[in-house]
Specification:
The protein has 15 helices and 26 strands. α13 links the parallel β18 and β19. The chain has a seven-stranded mixed beta sheet, with helices on both faces. Strands 15-18-19-14-13-21-22 form a seven-stranded mixed beta sheet, with helices on both faces. It is of the alpha/beta class. It folds into two domains: 284 residues, Aldehyde Dehydrogenase, Chain A, domain 1, CATH 3.40.605.10; 188 residues, Aldehyde Dehydrogenase, Chain A, domain 2 (3-Layer(aba) Sandwich). The longest helix is centred in the N-terminal third of the chain and has 21 residues. The site of 2-aminohexanedioic acid has 9 residues, from loops. 2-aminohexanedioic acid binds next to loops.
């Protein structure tokens, strides 16, 4: 492991004041137009060295109620503002994030353990989605539809929905908030956000920025409300709350199953972005240099803690031995260490539980006869060496998403078999093929090809741009966030028919009375 020259406390000391965070004091974990919090105090430790980063006062049930009431009131005023005016507020939010990109990127590193470049990349995702949302604020169009009745016009319009609940995970602690809240904001919705308890400070920093922008524009800042707390308290309150028409939840399949069930029971909508078990197929015609780089970034980037991380590869038998050996050699070169050092590529896992989960999965895969080709050792603290294992697709541990840098390698002879194996898991988020053969690429993208929400050719499974709709099938939950027309989930669709004639013809030719 590389030595550490930049300490957590040094970085924290420099950036906390700029982000409005308190190093020694208590940070309020509830924003309802003003800052409060009367629940249990959370101590946030950095995964980098285990040191105390800050203390956060979480939301009690009363705090939740206060935040929700404020968000609801803020929504009622916000929805009346013309959408392009709402876009202007989001434009300024994007600019405010731009100004603090370095500091925000650094606190992502301190809290989530991402390397600096990925921390900044995450902030860039926030900026990008703000830009996208600004454009969108002038494009929330509906259709005009041909009416079957004379003297009638039919159209579709999109109305603000209400208060949107956002539940986000530690691994993208702020980008996912921005995907949801920037779109929701231009759509005329308020948001109430429950971030992961593993990344509370960056959430507070972002809401402080949003608050400032709102105040400068005379907008009620409770349109961006915050409730930091546990899933079993705040998460449950939010999911059960009939005032919340849409809950957008990112995280584990188990969490999503609970949220989906509770929200459906009250006929709310949920937008779920859950686990992935993403694979890359490497065919004999592939550009192997590209494939190798994509696999390394996909499997060990963010220390394997992206929902889009590459977890399985299927390599054609004719090239497998040599290609896998080159991967093992590449893994040996990867610098592991503090994510605050510019040359580090692999930082720590988020916490001890994540390390234990990785160890448990490796134990299981070995029990099944998996052949560990490299890595899987605990270096120190939450630092592990990334691991490559020869395995079989139908082993339960391979079917399961372990949020850690474990890459399962499998061989194939026929592309149809590789595609079938790729699809034969419960999850359906991201997938990729490396090939220079048009027929193979098109087969992979055809109806009988990849069954995932994301299918890539000659790029890896992770690192999607914000412009496309993001999400996946099966146990990944089916929701779509971010780009394309994902905004429609944040609005109420209304079909309108206007009769400008003097008659009242009924549809389907029905005669009723005269
Ligand atoms: C996630 O891990 O929850 O495509 C989101 C990617 C990122 C988003 C990942 N843009 O890897």
């Amino acid at each position: 492991m590389k030595p550490q020259s930049v300490t957590v406390s040094l970085v924290a000391k420099t950036i906390f004041p700029k982000l409005g965070l308190s190093l020694k004091g208590l940070n309020s974990g509830v924003f309802s137009g003003s800052w409060s919090g009367s629940g249990a105090v959370l101590e946030k430790r950095s995964p980098i060295d285990g040191s105390l980063l800050g203390r956060v006062q979480q939301a009690s049930a009363e705090d939740y109620e206060k935040a929700m009431t404020a968000a609801q009131a803020a929504f009622l005023a916000w929805r009346d503002l013309p959408a392009p005016k709402r876009g202007e507020v989001v434009r300024q939010l994007g600019n405010a994030l731009r100004e603090l990109k370095t500091e925000l990127g650094q606190i992502v590193s301190l809290e989530a353990g991402k390397i600096l470049s990925e921390g900044e990349g995450e902030v860039q995702e926030m900026i990008d989605i703000c830009d996208f949302a600004v454009g969108l604020s002038r494009q929330l169009h509906g259709l005009t539809i041909a009416s079957e009745r004379p003297g009638h016009r039919m159209m579709e319009q999109w109305q603000p929905l209400g208060v949107v609940g956002i539940i986000s995970a530690f691994n993208f602690p702020v980008a996912v908030w921005a995907w949801n809240s920037a779109l929701a904001a231009v759509c005329g919705d308020a948001t109430i956000w429950k971030p992961s308890e593993k990344t509370p400070l960056i959430a507070i920093a972002c809401i402080k920025i949003a608050e400032k922008v709102c105040r400068a524009n005379g907008v009620d800042p409770a349109i961006f409300s915050l409730v930091i707390g546990e899933g079993k308290t705040v998460g449950e309150l939010l999911s059960n709350d009939r005032r919340i028409p849409l809950v957008s939840a990112t995280g584990s399949t188990r969490m999503g199953q609970r949220v989906g069930e509770v929200v459906a029971k009250r006929f709310g909508r949920s937008l779920l972005e859950l686990g992935g078990n993403n694979a890359i197929i490497v065919t004999p015609s592939a550009d192997l240099k590209l494939a190798k780089r994509a696999i390394v970034f996909g499997a060990v980037g963010t220390a394997g803690q992206r929902c889009t991380s590459t977890r399985r590869i299927f390599v054609h038998e004719s090239i497998k031995a040599e290609f896998v050996a080159s991967l093992v050699a590449a893994y040996a070169q990867l610098p592991i260490g503090s994510p605050l050092e510019k040359t580090t590529l692999i930082g720590p896992l988020i916490d001890e539980a994540a390390v234990a989960m990785m160890q448990a999965s490796l134990k299981q895969v070995k029990k099944f006869g998996g052949n560990v080709l490299c890595g899987g050792e605990l270096v120190k603290g939450n630092y592990v060496t990334p691991c490559i294992v020869e395995a079989q697709n139908d082993w339960p541990v391979v079917q399961h998403e372990t949020f850690a840098p474990i890459l399962y390698v499998m061989g194939y002879r026929e592309l149809d078999d590789a595609i079938a194996m790729q699809n034969a898991v419960p999850q359906g988020l991201s997938s990729a093929i490396f090939t220079t053969d048009l027929r193979e690429a098109e087969k992979f993208l055809s109806a009988r090809g990849s069954d995932c929400g994301i299918a890539n050719v000659n790029i890896g499974t992770s690192g999607a741009e914000i412009g496309g709709a993001f999400g996946g099938e099966k146990e990944t939950g089916g929701g779509r966030e971010s780009g394309s027309d994902a905004w429609k989930a944040y609005m109420r669709r209304q079909t309108v028919t206007i009769n400008y004639s003097n008659a009242l013809p009924l549809a389907q030719g029905i005669k009723f009375g005269d």
